Structure formats: structure tokens, C-alpha cells
Amino acid sequence: MNKSVQSSKNMFIKILKFCASKKGTVSIIPAKMDGYITLKSKAACLNSIPIIAVDALEKEGMVVASKNILQTTPAGKMHLRRALCQVDEFQQQHRLTGHRKIMVDKNLETLISNEGESPLTRLRYRPAKDGKSYIDDMEFQAGERLRVDFSKGLLTRQLSSNWCVTENEVSGSNGRNGIVDLSDTALAARKRTTAAFIAVGPEFSGVLIDICCFLKGLELVENERQWPPRSAKLMLKTGLSILARHYGFTKPDNNRSRNSSPVRHWGSDNFKPEMFPE
User: Fold this and answer.
1) Count of CB atoms within 10 A of residue 196's CB?
2) Do 146 and 208 form a contact (C-beta atoms < 8 A)?
3) Strand partners, 45
4) In sequence order, which residues have a C-beta less than 8 Å from that of residue 116 and are 6 or more positions away?
5) What values do phi and psi take at 18, rounded to 5?
6) What value, to the nearest 5°, has the Cα angle with vertex 107 and ends 102 and 108?
């Protein structure tokens, strides 16, 4: 790339980033040098900005200059978001990205994830009418744990054709994707997934598979199962609540004192414990 083009691009990003930051109103102040201006807000100041750069941004519809006030347009904010990302620009513009810590070769690494991929994430971070999330942290963690075990157990659908099937594999002897080829990790994940489905029962296991594991939308699940509108959300929340209890994700009980302990034994009237039980 030409150095002058790269320099102009960096200047555009610099201006957009300054105007898009939450530093209050950005004022345009004439500089001492001809052809340059100063952008000033309540918290910061940006000196030696070429007027031709601001004019170019305004011509492209990325900023609006009115009464010595410079503002970023929605198009300018989207352009800045694409320019600052280090992956596919247009995908990053529409993604809800987040960071997750996972184990890679026995090392804990932080990776960028697309939080908008899972319907659970949208339900978790999209507030309801009362301002609270529809599913809480425990229910969200339970659904994500089910998806991890489902994926580790190699239970996801195979989208591509397997052209490596031989006669022995078709007959069932040492076939690929069979029990013989599964690792201990995959077998353990399958056992955990089976135990989770047994815990929630057949009434809720289907909707948990569709939404948590296959990432189907709520409307799609309702259409496929011929359910009434908004019923999949209720079934999902109930299933996630049972699943969270199965995994041991319990909510803290603020009403119970710290020194209180659960009941260990029930005794009738005039009950006396034995000092030295046989």
C-alpha cells in the first residue's frame, strides 16, 4: 500500500476514533497553521488535523460539521468498527464479540468468540420488559456446558459426506465414528450428556438439543414442533432451570445465615440420640 494512502487512512481513523469516543462534544478550533484545525473536547485535544481530511470524511458521509461542532454519523461509526478489527471487516461489524478462556494444550488461553452465535447469549444479554435478563447466569452456564459436552461427544450432525467408508466399516466392524474410535474424552462427554438428558426428561430434552446444541432459533423451534408463539422460550427456561440443578449450579440463598446447616436427621417427640451407636 502507498505510504500516502496509508497515512490518510490512519488520519481518518484517528479523527473518527476521537469523535466517536465518549468525551463530550467535539469542537472545531482554527489552528495557527493554515490548512489545519484543532479538535477539542472536555477531556482531550487533537492538534494538527488537516482540513482536507475532515472535508473528505464529510464528503463520504462519515462526519457532520455544523456550527463548529464535529459529529460522527452512523456510517462513520460502522467504518471505524470495521477498520479497528483484525479479522473479516464486515463480519466484525455485525458480530457481538466477547472473550472466553479455554484450555488449549493444558494452557488457559483467551480467545475471541462470537457471542451472537448462540440463542442463549441473546436471551442472556437482551433485557426483558422489567430490565432483567430472561435467563440468569446459572441457566446460561448450564446451557453452555450442555453444548460443550454435546460437541465433545461428537454428537453434532455431520454436514459433509464421508467418502472413506469401506466394506468393513459398513458391516459395523471397527467403523469410523463408532465406539471403538471414540476417545476417553468423547466417551465421558457422551455419558455426561446422556445423564443430563435423563435428568431433564423427554419433555425438555428436545428443546434443549435444538436451541443449546444445534443453535436453532426460538421461532424455528416453534414452527417445527407446531407450538404456539413464545412457548419455546418458556419451555427453554424451565429446562435450563432443571439442567442447572442437575449440574449443581445453585443460586446463593441470602435468607439463610452463614452458620446454618442443613437438616441431617429427623426425630419424633422425645427422641434421644445414642451416645455410642453400635
Assistant:
1) 20
2) yes
3) 40
4) 95, 96, 122
5) -70, -40
6) 40
Do residues 203 and 227 lie in contact, with contact meaning Cβ atoms separated by under 8 Å? Answer: no
**Amino acid at site 272:** K
Proportion of the chain above pLDDT 90, given as a percent: 18
Write out the three cell numbers for 14: 484517528
Distance CA 269, CA 262 (A): 20
- Apex CA 130: angle with CA 124 and CA 133, to 5°? 10
CA distance 147 to 131: 27
Residues 6 or more apart whose CB falls under 8 angstroms from that of 4 comprise none
Q: Which of 82-96, 118-132, 149-163, 252-266 has the highest mean pLDDT?
A: 118-132
Of the two residues 171 and 210, the one the predictor is more confident about is: 210
What's the CA angle centered on 185, arms 180 and 186, to 5 degrees? 55
> DSSP state, 209?
I
Q: Are strands 45-50 and 107-114 parallel, antiparallel or unpaired?
A: unpaired
Cell numbers that stand for 197 in this block: 438428558
d(CA 231, CA 229): 5
